[in-house]
Structure of UvrD-like helicase ATP-binding domain-containing protein:
Amino acid sequence: MYRRLEEKIHEAEFLMNDAAQRGQVGTPGALAERDAQVFRAGVHLNRLNNEFEDFLFGRIDLLTGKDGKKGPDGAYTAVEPAEGAVREDDTADIAETLHIGRIGVLDQDYAPLVIDWRAPAAAPFYRSTPVDPGRVVRRRVIRSKGRKVLGVEDDLMRPELTAFLDGQELPVIGDGALMAALGQARSHTMRDIVASIQAEQDLVIRAPAASVTYVEGGPGTGKTAVALHRAAYLLYQDRRRYAGGILIVSPTPLLVAYTEGVLPSLGEEGQVAIRAIGSLVEGNEAALYDAPSVARAKGSYRMLKVLRKAARGALELNDAPTRLRVVAFGRRLELEAQELEGIRRAALGGTAPVNLLRPRARKLLLDALWEQSGSANRHTDPELAAELRSSFDEDITSEDAFIAFLDAWWPELTPAAVLDAMTDERRLGRWARRILNPGEVRKVARSLKRDGRSVHDIALLDELQAILGAPARPRKKRELDPLDQLTGLEELMPVREESQRERAERLAQERTEYAHVIVDEAQDLTPMQWRMVGRRGRHATWTVVGDPAQSSWSDPDEAAQARDEALGSRPRRRFQLTVNYRNPAEIADLAAKVLALAMPGSESPKAVRSTGVEPRFSVVADMLGETVRDEAARLLERVDGTVGVVVAMQRRAEARRWLAGLGDRVVALGSLEAKGLEYDATVVVSPAEIADESPAGLRVLYVALTRATQQLTVVSAERDEPDAAGVPDLLRD
Ligand SMILES: Nc1ncnc2c1ncn2[C@@H]1O[C@H](COP(=O)(O)OP(=O)(O)OP(=O)(O)O)[C@@H](O)[C@H]1O
């Protein structure tokens, strides 16, 4: 396979060189062709080079299939073995061996050498289980680095069989791939799971892209991993439709950074936009978190009404003029405050976007002036009357005073300007009367006054954009260069090749709607955020993954309603993931106690492994910071990978100071920032403080307790009321 890959790389390099030479023949046609060729070859080369590491990871040995037919990828299509494939004495011959890799490779005769993991022929690699083995006898996972095989892990799907390959008995090596993968140390970036996707996960990844695929599962069940692999699968299935058209919405920039590398490792570079919920509006990257009570107000549906009022109210700011004076047909005409107010009200009736109502307001102003001028009755002939009217309008609208008045009286509003207007508490109070209570008004106004936007502000900006509408812009005139008119001279200008990343960014910027939207940690979206995400997928198919038990949003019913509105009446296909691949049983059992308090009656996912290491409980002796630092240092010695220290949001900055100098394997996180992330070991600081911080605090604590793959330490302060063994009240039986 590596020999074949080298040939492919040479081919791609040859194409690049050839194209570069062709470029020296300067006809525009040859140049355009060169650009296209360089682009294609570049993508190909980049991809092959990327894939070289750990390229081939799987192998299945199969019995003869039932129908003996081969599919388009050269593999037998039947899932079930043929009659007689297994002999009476439980022996059988292997009829076919398939190798599975990150992308497909064909040999010189176009026969499959390696099958793409997403191809139908690869499905048995993931779907086969000892309960329902199909044709698979042995599934092998190969771990390699470069060209060196590091290890091989076999799973026998038909352990009762003695199978022969070319007359030799099939050997079995290792304890299975899954356990090997789960035991590995974690780094600050997520790894793909292609080599060990489990059957229930595979069903989701390969679900048809129709309408809405809805996935629920507890912490560590692989929801994020499945969402990412599904994006790669959809691209493989229908590249034309999905290339550049998939959006993954992630709760935090930290989770974006953590997951970003997975798609390239699956052979998909630059085709999927992964965005944090606070970065969905172009030009904004929200870094602030609002206090829970502010977030609750800003995220709720109630805000929609406030914004609608604010968008209309903001027209009257900045000393809007209260009188209009013009001269028409040699007469002075004047509209007073009260009349102007009436005209504004009439223009604003209905729900059309405010910026688009300006022409209507202008028309109403002219009507009023016309009426005042008394010219309406001058002619009985309708044609003459119309002519008179149009010259009257022209007279006025070309007058500087009128133009200046209109700009001040009906300014073009931007979302940011309206949010700024909302920083005035009295004004906001007017717009939010009987919608927000006075306490909320004060806090929201104050929070908007800070420098920088919060995550929740972004959904408000997006909503305002919809309420205001894009103002009609005069089209930018292209500067006319007479030389341009000749044959595409611009093609002769040196063009810098666009990198994959630049291409992805450009596509993302140009796009406001997507063909497929994947929402990760969907339980956390507020109603206002659902509206924002919904606008990006009005004609899309969807994959929604989440876990209600981990929701940090305080009003789940309201959010569910918003979600249903965003997804519309599209039918749902529901899936449930049931196995926890992250936490060992010892940690999962402890977290289950909080789950019972947070959502009585809901079930924890089953942990697949146990480490024998019980969670450790530590009580603050003197200084909280010192204890936490000591515990983090202790864990750093015990694990090879990362350590996460999870604290209440208000302690974030402080916690970073506590850990200064311990190195970059350890990080401090606020409870909300821990969403979706994982570490070899975690220190959870003061469960009571995390739980008390917001109305959804117990669910946030549940998230915090389920981040570790190996070890967990819980640090209790006084308010945790630890018992003699240091176990805090919230975590006792
Ligand atoms: N089939 C698998 N093979 C190997 N590792 C897996 C598999 N499925 C999940 N994992 C690993 O388990 C961990 C948890 O997966 P992931 O983060 O996708 O879970 P999640 O359901 O999104 O969790 P949470 O709800 O807590 O955010 C990851 O390290 C992931 O790589």
Summary: Residues 178, 181-182, 191, 193, 196-198, 201, 217, 219-225, 547, 550, 581-582, 676, 678, 706 surround adenosine-5'-triphosphate (CB under 6 Å).
